[in-house]
Amino acid sequence: MAFAQALVARAERRLPSLTRTRAAESLPIRLHRRRIYILPTRSGLGFALLLVVMLLGALNYQNNAALLLTCLLGAAVVNSMLVAFRGLNGLRLTQLRADPACAGDPLPLHLQFDADGRPRHALRIDIDGEAFSFSLDGHGGETTVGMPTERRGWMRVPRVRISSTQPFGLFRAWSWVAPEQEVLVYPRPLHGPPAPPGAEDGKRRERGEEDYAQLREYRFGDPLKRVAWKASARHDRLLIRELDSAAHDAPQRFEWTMLHGVDRETRIGRLAGWVHEAHAAGRTWTLVLEDARAIGPGADHAHYHRCMTALALS
Amino acid sequence: MSASLRGESGQSRHPWSRAPWPHFSQEQTSAGSLTLDARAFDLLCLTVACTLAVHLPHMPAWLGAALAALMLLRWLQRRTRRGHIPALARFALLIALPLAIVASYHTPFGRAPGTALAIGLLVLKLLESERERDARMTVGFCCFVLMSALLFTQTLAMSLLVAFALLPGLATLRALQADAPQRRELGLFKPGAGLLLASSPLALLAFVFVPRLSAPLWGAPGADVARTGISDRMSPGDMRDLLIDDSPAMRIGFDGAPPPANQRYFRGVVLWYFDGRAWSRGVTGIRNEVPQAVTSRGGLTHYEVTLEPTRRRWLFALDVPVQAPDGARLGADRTLDRSRPVDETARYEVTSATHYVLAPQIDPALERAALQLPADYDPRATALARSWRARFVQDDAAIVRAALDLFRSGGFAYNLAAPPLGRDSVDDFLFDTKQGYCEHYAGAFAFLMRAAGVPARVVAGYHGGYWNDYAQYLLVRQSEAHAWDEVWLSGRGWVRVDPTAMVRRVLFAGTADGGDGSGEDAWWLSWSDRLDVVNRLWDRSVIGFDALRQSTMFTPFGIPHLEWGELAIGLAAGIVVMLGLGLLVALHRPGAPPRDALDAAQRRLQEKLGKHGLARQPQEGPRDFFARCMLALPGSRPELAALARTYLQLRYGHAAPPAEPVRAYSRAVRNFRARRVVK
To answer: Which domain holds residue B465?
Structure first.
């Protein structure tokens, strides 16, 4: 197996057209016969061995019915190669969309395919070692894969392998696709001390229960310390203490210069963490970056994305 | 919000509060380690069940039942709970299986025990099939075991059955695919069935061109059943296995026309001695005498025989050979003997007389041998024969006719499943059972003749054969083994008499008249006749397509003999052509739009203009290009202006240009002639 991998790696190095790593392509990318490759899978090789044994047996026993059966099975296997090829041929990757994700999380990548008028079964996408399977009907459709991310900033969509082992898993047809796209990865939010500025206000207010006007459903990103545990236990679902309108409106200001003694990445991570918490809590905040550029104040999704984008690229 | 995606497509606007994790259909990456789902397992069970069912007829009933029960138990167990059968139980079964097979067959070797063992192992494999890899191995093994069913019988029905039994296996493989359609079970069978159908031309091609082995690589094929051919001992019931064996016995190529069907009697051995039960060649002294004189009354036939191995010393020749081939000796009874047995395919040339007088004068020793009868056997038959002698006195020919009359109208029937006979076998046959085949009739007839004092002997050989018009040879099968008689009549010598023909003629006449047969019978017979034609076609074209016929299949096209290498080249070329056709089908796009006629017309126009040095530049739009052409070709300005107007209107005025104006434009382009000068 290791030898096979080394061989494939060598082939990819020697024959760049085999993998199409050289040039990223612009969408739409159509899979056609010059870029679809087929090799038998391991079970395909096993099946070939079986066919050879059957052939020898039939010939040795001069049994023509057995020979005909072997020929029939062999021909069907050979033609299944064409079916695997046909499963990919003409498939078009028309659109690529990405949802935001923080570094370290898989990034949802939506791939829109045009199936060229016939259904495609058992397709598989490999992206950075992760595999996803999907099927398309004749009109095409969208599939979502999780692209592994490591660090913030612009990230090239890595080359993607679209493959199919239709119909019997004896041959794998595959094609490499390297879309000319970059996606933005947000910095990973770091939580922990120091508490965000303006939290002192919150802390002061926390003493009085009357400051919390209402309870609401838990949403992703809500800090655990604001879970109303007793109320949650009563209602059998996680409830969050919503700050009253006064706390809601208190604008916060997250400045680059507020953090000292940490390296640049940690600083960005902490700022992202503050932004994240403020957004989750529905507060209003202003972000001041390294170059003293201020973003905000604001409280909505657009503001959140603006801030995270700025942090991702700073 | 800034776009988080740089490129053509925009970023999806995903509210952050929504679950950020869409449901990914992520696969486990280590292939083959996936656990089988219930449906794939059901299909796998079906595959093994079909394989078992195909083999049931030639397995001991208890073994088949035990394996089926084991399989059913496993299926029920897997339905309730996933997981293996405990290892200890599997181990115990693994030990028990070979023991059971040895106990049943008394040997672990050979075709039947080997196949039973393979099926047993297959069922045991099912007990531990939990993962995708197991399922794939099991399906492969099933294919092999299915093929081995054809080693027992290669009839058309069995072959079709085995081919159908491939379908569940292929459906199982399909079900192992990641996204197998979840709703319709039958949909899983479609790719397999479709591929098998679509692959039949390629399969046929491979079948025709795969070079056959002239000698087996290992073992003797069919060693379990000694295929002996015609034996030199004949007692009622001996020949039955031979008569249902459709394998070829010999092939004969004639110089000139083949003899008519009623003269295709191939003499093998002459049986002189009757011991009350069986006919045999008797003392060798008779055979070693000088060949009896033969006078031909008509032309001689010269031919070449290709005899399949018989492991016997005698050869077969058309009745009656006048000259022995090289390496063989002509016996006193005109049989051909060789010094060593025919262990490999033998080829020899013989000359025979089909109209002849054999031994007009009989040697007293031979006459004695031809009248020999055991004492105290078959009193009723002896009495009947003596009554004929008393009635016809000296007229031997009349006695022969009387015996034939008895067979013709005495209520006798041709039946391969003849009832067993007692000690007085001839009496039992003649007066009680009245059913039998050539052995019974030839033996009983010879007995009657000898009892009546007419010298008689039994001849065993083949009768009939199938004339292959393409390869120009007569194929004689084992099933055409036959026994007939010769009686010696004074002045005419040894005369061939075939008592079985009397019975057969009666049988066939009855069905041909349809006299007392009801309509249903007639319907059934017509269908069974048609089925028989199909079966014979299968036998001749598929089963009988051996190394010899393969090497001579292009004889009608002027290639007398194909060598191994030529066959291999033919095979390779055929596969390339077939795969090329397959690739064309695979590349065919049913939904592809037809080629744009407007573009084609425009390309033609550009080619025409290109000849005048007016190639369209890459950066040039159609309007600019037309303008440049009109300046360069003042003579064609009005036409070009019209063309430009039409083209721009058609190209940019519609999403899809209407067909009729495009055709008109295309016509205009065809008629367009570029003129540099104004006329």
So the answer is: 233-511
